[in-house]
């Protein structure tokens, strides 16, 4: 790094669990590009100050967002893609002549992670547990990519109903269902909640209640595989860890940032690793 390095940030609180800085920085090195992605642990009360610095620092070209900033950051932006506007959240921001523009790419992380393992949402019954940023974007993308049905569960009932209303308006009421409990014969189950990370946690869904063919996906990236996925793997379920949720969207992130084809090629190789 030097005074000419193009900088990108990741803003979250905490950030130690994130894998995207490692992926992007390895890609920048492989492509021999003078750029870096730096994780900044940003408490919620400092988010506005961070966005002001992003706006005015000419060598910072964009940023990624993780917990807990994906919804709160929207009010600081000058433009949103139609997808992020409908969802009310973003996980990536770029600079444009019109100001700061955000998009919601987490849904591509979900379907991209499935694709890495030879899976697809098309024609499937998909359950999303947790209707925050990652869950909302994933439900949207599943319906966009022709899932037969998406079920939603969240302990925050108002948030779940709000998301269901938005999805039904876009994709049709017959394709969206809210649940009072995470139960049923779902073919793909995404955990986009903090539940099930540790053995002491309440599980997002009882493993013994899963259908035999169910594929389980985590949206979060804990240091160790989540207890929930570990339990499911012991019962011979196909499981996809949170690191692949990030890998599934890195190319879309690179394209949104306008990174070079060399960086995108390097990310593609890292994505396969």
Write a structural description.
The protein has 273 residues and is α/β, with parallel strands linked by helices. The protein has two domains: 6-104 and 249-272, Leucine Dehydrogenase, chain A, domain 1 (Rossmann fold), CATH 3.40.50; 107-245, NAD(P)-binding Rossmann-like Domain (Rossmann fold, 3-Layer(aba) Sandwich), CATH 3.40.50. 36% of the residues lie in helices and 21% in strands. It has ten helices and twelve strands. The protein has helices at 20-30, 47-56, 82-87, 106-116, 133-144, 157-171, 227-234, 242-247, 250-257, 261-272; strands spanning 6-12, 35-41, 60-65, 79-80, 92-96, 99-103, 125-129, 149-153, 176-178, 188-191, 215-218, 238-240. The protein has a six-stranded mixed beta sheet with strand order 2-1-3-5-6-4, sandwiched between helices. Strands 9-8-7-10-11-12 form a six-stranded parallel beta sheet, with helices on both faces. Helix 1 packs across helix 10 (261-272). The longest helix is centred in the middle third of the chain and has 15 residues, at 157-171. It is globular and about 55 Å long. The mean pLDDT is 91.
